[in-house]
Amino acid sequence: MRLAATLLCLCMVGGGSGAAIDGTWELTRIFRTGPAPAARAVPLDSTTYVRFTVVTSSGGWIGGNMERWYLGQLERSRLNGAEAEGRGRYIVSYRLKLPVWTRGESVAWMVGDTLRLGTALVPDADSIEFRRVAEGAPYPKTVTEIVSAR
User: At CB < 8 A and 24+ separation, what contacts does 74-80 make?
Assistant: First the structure.
């Protein structure tokens, strides 16, 4: 009986679904446009940094937690969403408090073993890229910023 209850709980929170987006994701690259192409390491405190954990459930619904560093200040929030018509794209909703309280949505999609978001989570970014990390992994000291010419 306990085994059946455990399996039912796992399926309800996504443990049985194994969706590609499940897991803990950490911001690794920020893409922007600028006057000249460049790539540089940006210190964590100088920009917005995001890490989130996603769990899918049956029906393609997404739930999770988001940790966001905004100019050195930690903010925790809930993450919600759903798969967009089974195309490997997801609609992710979030709530931000800094610099001002706002709600937002973004489209997320898998690119190989990375996750891309076109988003307002990072000010002035065209898109951002996440990599999968172990839950509780230490935060990096820098994030890579890629600038492409206008």
Answer: 79/52, 79/54
Q: What is the pTM of this model?
A: 0.80
Residue 148, CB-side half-sphere exposure with 13 Å CA sphere:
7
User: How many other C-beta atoms can be found within 10 angstroms of the C-beta atom of residue 117?
Assistant: 22
Q: What tokens appear for 145 in the block?
A: 């910023």
Domain 18-149 belongs in CATH node 2.40.110.10: no
**Could you tell me if 146 and 39 are in contact, meaning their C-beta atoms sit under 8 angstroms apart?**
yes
How is the chain split among helix, strand and coil, in percent rounded to 5? 10, 55, 35
Q: What is the mean pLDDT of residues 110-128?
A: 87
**38 Cβ contact list (under 8 Å, min separation 6):** 145, 146, 147
Report yes or no: 3 and 47 within 8 Å, Cβ to Cβ. no
Query: Which residues sit opposite 53 in a β-bridge?
Result: 24, 65
- Say what the pLDDT of residue 123 is: 80
Q: What mean pLDDT is predicted for residues 119-138?
A: 89
Average predicted confidence (pLDDT) for the chain? 83
